Amino acid sequence: MDAPCAPGQPIKKQQLIRLQHSITRKWLHSHGFYSPISGNQEVSAFGSDTQTDGGDVWSVEWDTKSKHWKQDAKIRLKHKDTGMLMSSNANHRFGQPIHGHQEVCGINSRGKDTEWFAAEGVYLPRSDRKAKDSKAAKDEL
Length: 141
Description:
This protein has one helix at residues 134-137, and strands spanning 16-17, 27-34, 41-46, 58-61, 76-79, 85-93, 102-107. By secondary structure, the protein is mainly β. The strands form two sheets. It has a four-stranded antiparallel sheet with strand order 2-3-7-6, with no helix packed on it. It has a three-stranded antiparallel sheet with strand order 1-4-5, with no helix packed on it.
């Protein structure tokens, strides 16, 4: 995997990334196990600040010609080790104790269930642009 990017550096198409949950410090992870509801590839939270492996690495993909991930753009996350796309479908919901939560899994076909966007988060100004360009660049992640 590439070296960690600096805060504010834009994410390029097909760049390899790891996503870490800010509270639990676990990584978005997948591997060759079956998910509990749909039987697809399991996606989970795993590891810590010091524990990570290849199962935590994802490629960021999108359909537009944009060179960088834009804040409102739909993307797909492709698992580096298995090639599966992260997916969620309203027909695959958990019961107790997390009633109503949808299963997240990996599948091998593209579709609406594999499209994601950044709904919330901390958006930093791009570090590779001068102040005069900041208005045009603020919508990129």
